[in-house]
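Can't attach files on this board, so I'm pasting raw text. These are the components:
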Amino acid sequence: MGKSVTIREIAEECHVSIATVSRVFNDSGTVSAATRQRVEEAIARRGYTPNALARSLISDQTMTLGVIAPDIANPYFSALFTLIEQAAIQAGYFLVLCNTFYISSSYQQGQRMARTEEEYFEMMLRRKVDGVLVIGGQIDVVEMSQSYRAALTNLARRMPVVVIGRPIPDVPCVFIEKESGGGVITAVNYLASLGHRRIAFAGGEPGITITATRLGAYRDALAALRLPCDEELVCLSDYYAKDGYQAGQVLLARGVDFTAALAINDSVALGLMRALKDHGLSVPQDVSIISCDQFYNSEYLIPRLTGIDQHNELLGKLVIQALLGAVHGTSEPALIKCMPELVVRESCQPPRQAVPREGAAMPNQ
Amino acid sequence: MGKSVTIREIAEECHVSIATVSRVFNDSGTVSAATRQRVEEAIARRGYTPNALARSLISDQTMTLGVIAPDIANPYFSALFTLIEQAAIQAGYFLVLCNTFYISSSYQQGQRMARTEEEYFEMMLRRKVDGVLVIGGQIDVVEMSQSYRAALTNLARRMPVVVIGRPIPDVPCVFIEKESGGGVITAVNYLASLGHRRIAFAGGEPGITITATRLGAYRDALAALRLPCDEELVCLSDYYAKDGYQAGQVLLARGVDFTAALAINDSVALGLMRALKDHGLSVPQDVSIISCDQFYNSEYLIPRLTGIDQHNELLGKLVIQALLGAVHGTSEPALIKCMPELVVRESCQPPRQAVPREGAAMPNQ
DNA sequence: AATCTTTATGTAAAGGTTTTCATAAACGCA
DNA sequence: TGCGTTTATGAAAACCTTTACATAAAGATT
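---
Top answer:
Structure tokens for the assembled complex are below.
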């Protein structure tokens, strides 16, 4: 496009030096009333607006933060992002959003849709962003690659970095960890207290910490209750509705006689419920469902979905605080944990076997 | 954070000029093998990475595009954004995402959460982004303010701008318009063909073009079919599940005897179905539902939601093409239209009155 | 009237890079 | 040996702004 108006042009037009124009625009230093007016008029007339690149070059800050996330189309991430953006904007920062599509089946299938996190780190460095937020992704891969670890360490040495995910020792970031296990244990105990004995687990990717943690907690809880924990009760895949649907089909095809199931998140729960319905089963009459990570519209689904609230609002606030703190140098590398909570709605009830009355007599359904 | 390594430091360390280092890094010009190796080692050892700000200052391009949208947490926008981001990244561009929260009840309620579009325009100008994409927002306000119009014109004169929304005459942007009316007419005709005569309309904000267009098409279609078009059949509010829920409550409280309803989008449809359920009504046995803008998981809901597909995938591709084209100077201000299509699933069936058989005999439910 | 202060403005450096132009050395060829 | 050509490298300008410092004029103080 056409070259834009520079401070020099305004200066020439007003027969003053560029320093004077700068003083007028930034209201710094002293300028006589007459000169000020002349310059202000020229600025308005020509539509002068300062070049942020030149400013950043001098001030050494870009008022920009990088956010690297697996997939913003995932409602969990988009809700979190919105929260963060609001706070960032209010603090005067802009956000550059980078999707890695790391946690998604398309990535697994080898379709390379975006850049890797390492590549994004390099770009953040070049662009001199004031700080970086990394949400999940490779950090949550159980067998994390050494090159990723090195890249993250390098980044964190050069600029403030906040990570939402599994903490890695000796990497100088602020780590924010979602404590998922506790919520899952609560959920399993709740299902057991309703009388369920065979509880399935659906969705999530093997090899990802979040899934591994939740799956581990599920097994621990079952073991503590002396309930069966067969491998055939577990079906992992990914994090979307289609994956829940597929998991449901697989579990049913296996002929597993579960009366309750944990879904890794709301989307998976949705797909799972759909698969059950297609198989002639009703929730919660035939099968009870709990989502391990509620983030959206759970209370409007039919039936209203019982789930674990990971307190994402709080998480969002912690993230912002940590990130802005790190940028301003007021927060140190640290580990912050968020505690989840079970929200009971309508998608669970005692199993038929344990309860003599018929499904037709059930309330609300 | 600590100052980063500059080209000058590498140059000094290798006893060469900065020009030589630049030549090595960018593989331009001629450099002797010995020097090249020495410099490359120093670059690797010190972890030199060029300052993109300085580069942009010279090259007059930032490889950054601005995206201004109402609310990325809305699945419609996040899906679109993901599409656009993939293409942008592949073309080497980064995206700065700005939420205005313009279309959202929180904005209406006067809570100022973000910047206005005008403010974002100014920021885009200052940051010298290579192009801007504006999705909806004030452009879709029926009574658009003059100051907004002026700001958009100013922006479009200075950099490439693509707008998804209502085209405004004499503003030099590429406008991409979603043709919503046609889909709504198809939907109404479909409901009428099933035998519905009293069809409600739920959700959307009054004063917004998308809502106005769809509402207008709804009224036109009803009029053409000589069906009733009472005001009490219409309940607007906003675009989220809570709004659909509320609209449902209002319609039911009014005692309106509708047998079918159009929801402005999937989220509203979800809330509306929940409200009906809470009132003891089933979809589709008692009320048929169609979403005017399907974007997510419609096929997993219970019942599977019939809706109008606005072909957002195609839209995304058009947007990317237009934006990159505008940035590279290969596309002119223009008007592009997308045609919608009705996708029939399970949420509609003939009304009880028109069909003698009982709800219990209905298939699939 | 001489000196000190304040006010207004300009000059120039700095920020990090790319790129054009200039220079110098090495090389090929008659 | 001398001249033209290629190869390797450096110097300096340009991009746009902010800011420290310098300068000059005007005003205040003795």
